[in-house]
Write a structure and sequence with these properties.
Blueprint (H helix, E strand, L loop, with lengths): L18 H18 L4 H22 L5 H27 L5 H29 L1 H28 L24 H24 L7 H34 L1
């Protein structure tokens, strides 16, 4: 398409996500969580997200690259199918008898040839799209991990309720143990929000160099989920700020 449009974009220094910066930010966040909340569940989630992020970066770097074994196999299979079709047509025409019976056989052979061409086209289409389908499956599996991690982060912040800091708050027998100070609770919720933001950026990496409508749709879903969960957390942070000011 660039052949038809004389558009010159600047170099992608600030218009693309850099995987090394995302990994660096995640590493610092993981260390911050571990330093402030040693051996916490959230720290273990951050550590797992770091491992997943490393695998995702490796996958994203491979997605734009051709899968040569698949391509070679596809080219060989397409060549064999075309060669077989040509051979069958040549063989049929060579041995068709002359006369009226031969014309009838030609018509029957033409009908069979049309059917063969249709099946051949479908087979070629299947083989030609095999590489993209393999890459799509790998990307969707990776995005599924990010979706799961987003829900796990949400579970960790679920019981972190600013209302527990209100003087009138009364515990019940089933109330979770809450020992965090207002400052610690704010930091904990903020770390959850940051994890979700990085989770969203890791999802966006999948379509930066690999254009696929189904993968793009799943990326949008993961980003929307991360944004909505982060919005819930920030509502808690704002409530916490109001509670602290009233104390």
């Amino acid at each position: 398409m660039s052949f038809f449009f004389n558009t010159k974009f600047p170099t992608s220094r600030f218009s693309e996500l850099k995987s090394e910066y995302i990994l660096g930010t995640l590493e610092k966040l993981k260390n911050r969580i571990e330093e402030r909340f040693p051996n916490s569940g959230l720290g273990k989630v951050a550590n797992e997200l770091s491992e997943v992020a490393t695998a995702i970066v490796g996958l994203v770097e491979q997605l734009p690259q051709p899968l040569w074994p698949i391509r070679i196999l596809t080219f060989v299979a397409i060549g064999l199918l075309i060669g077989l079709t040509v051979w069958v047509c040549t063989f049929t025409v060579h041995y068709i008898p002359a006369g009226e019976s031969g014309l009838l056989e030609i018509l029957q052979g033409a009908e069979s040839a049309i059917n063969e061409v249709i099946f051949l086209g479908l087979a070629i289409l299947f083989l030609a799209t095999a590489e993209n389908r393999i890459k799509r499956r790998a990307a969707l599996n990776s995005l599924h991990r990010l979706r799961s991690i987003a829900h796990v982060v949400d579970m960790h912040q679920l019981t972190k309720d600013p209302a527990s800091l209100v003087a009138e708050f009364k515990k019940t027998a089933s109330s979770p143990e809450r020992t965090m100070t207002p400052y610690q609770l704010t930091r904990y919720l903020d770390y959850c929000s940051e994890l979700l933001a990085i989770n969203s950026k890791l999802a966006a990496l999948h379509v930066q160099c690999f254009q696929d409508s189904e993968v793009q749709k799943t990326v949008d879903e993961v980003e929307t989920l991360s944004h909505e969960l982060s919005s819930k957390i920030w509502q808690k942070i704002m409530m916490l700020d109001v509670v602290v000011k009233k104390r």
